[in-house]
Design a protein that fits this description.
9-stranded antiparallel beta sheet; 13 helices; 12 strands; single chain
């Protein structure tokens, strides 16, 4: 284990709030006191905390790869973790930098490590959803109750009262088109001009497609993955039907919200029990409370004197809210990209296509030794992430930071610069 020395740079001084409080002529109520006045909060430096693992590898100069990433990131982030696994799943490079929580956090300072529970935003969350959908299709069984199919319209798996209200332009959109980002949704849910709130999904489905190009054209949209939370009959048809019948007397919004909640429940149960469970992966749906004290807050900059943002609990997670440690995300990505533990290699081939029919992965780039499949993500509070599959070497990589600034880890360029041999396919 390589362990970095403490930084020799001058320490950041985070003491403005303390100075202002000392100059006040009257007592300041505790709830108005600057967060930087918290004991131990006025002087800290995330760059004091850097721990790395570097294992020699025949294909990649892992130390060079490590050093280039650390140099590119500099000291502009509160905390981040990068994990690189080889084709067999062995961790050959790991960077654990900075703080998951600064000393200003009410819960106290916490280092950002491979075990820190953190949000993954749209990258890890969308890929979790799409891979789980492929798992469901591939592992469905029972002649009496045929499983879901990628080539069938997704409306077949909606709550019963929604199916006939779907706009005609959406009626032939298939499950597969959802996984390919070709369903016809705009990037984010439209807002109701009267309330400023996102338009309900049942209302959106009854309206015309939101993209000018309409269904069938590849366009990035959160709702392509979010929709899987509204398909209770996709994940557990018998449970969905029993519940649907039990509330069939409800009307309007009462019915819609009840079925929405049931869809989320069945989606989360399937992912946790059938996909993550067998891998030994622990994760939560948009809820950090399961992590005990080992979780991250989110920051706009690395010298923030405030406590940082604690992500609130939200039930929806298919598009951006899965919470898990970098170590467990790395285990999951290797498992679905390199093994048959989650989906077969035949099913995974749908995710590697070099055209608009590619499932899941949003980006397909070219490294010096072959294509790189990638999906990044973010949340409005500061979590940013990348997950990647370097198909030429079979390596998989996950990277996540709790700072709002766009990451500068330049992963493909640094990978190319660190390759020992180039095996372009």
């Amino acid at each position: 284990m390589f362990k970095s020395p403490s930084s020799s740079r001058p320490r950041r001084r985070i003491g403005l709030g303390t100075t202002l409080a000392a100059l006040a002529l009257v007592a300041v109520p505790a709830w108005l006191a600057p967060q930087s006045a918290r004991a131990g909060c006025e002087d800290f430096d995330p760059s004091d905390h850097l721990s790395s693992r570097i294992v020699p590898n025949a294909k990649l100069d892992t130390k060079k790869f490590h050093d280039r990433i650390v140099a590119a990131m500099g000291d502009d982030y509160m905390g981040y973790v990068v994990i690189l696994k080889d084709e067999k799943g062995k961790t050959i490079m790991r960077i654990e930098y900075g703080l998951a929580r600064s000393p200003c956090a009410p819960e106290g300072q916490k280092r950002f490590t491979r075990t820190t529970k953190t949000l993954w935003g749209s990258g890890g969350s969308k890929m979790t959803t799409f891979v789980s959908a492929l798992h469901r299709v591939e592992h469905a069984s029972g002649a009496a109750s045929p499983g879901p199919k990628l080539n069938l319209p997704f409306r077949r798996y909606l709550p019963r009262k929604w199916r006939n209200t779907v706009h005609e332009d959406f009626r032939d959109v298939t499950v597969g088109m959802l996984t390919q980002h070709r369903a016809g949704f705009q990037k984010s849910a439209p807002k109701d001009p009267a309330t400023g709130e996102s338009v309900d999904m049942w209302t959106r489905l009854a309206s015309e497609p939101e993209r000018p190009a309409g269904p069938g054209h590849r366009s990035y949209a959160n709702s392509s993955s979010t929709m899987f939370q509204y398909l209770p009959y996709f994940w557990a048809p018998a449970k969905a039907l029993n519940y649907d019948k039990s509330i069939e007397g409800r009307r309007g919004k009462a019915y819609h919200e009840a079925m929405e909640a049931k869809g989320i429940e069945l989606y989360v149960d399937y992912v946790q029990d059938r996909v993550f469970g067998p891998l030994g992966v622990s994760a939560s749906c948009h809820d950090i409370d399961y992590a005990g004290n080992n979780w991250a807050r989110y920051y706009r900059k690395p010298d923030a004197s405030g406590p940082g943002h604690k992500e609130p609990h939200k039930a929806k997670c298919a598009a951006g809210g899965w919470v898990m440690s970098p170590a467990h995300m790395a285990k999951f990505v290797h498992a679905f990209a390199q093994t048959n533990a989650v989906i077969s290699r035949g099913m995974y081939s749908k995710m590697t296509r070099d055209n608009d029919l590619r499932v899941g992965w949003w980006n397909r780039k070219q490294a010096a030794d072959g294509p790189v499949l990638a999906h990044n993500g973010s949340t409005s509070y500061g979590a940013k992430s990348n997950i990647m599959h370097f198909t030429g070497s079979g390596f998989t990589l996950v990277a996540v930071t709790n700072t709002k600034k766009s990451p500068k880890w330049n992963l493909v360029d640094n990978y190319n610069a660190s390759l020992k041999r180039r095996l372009t396919k």
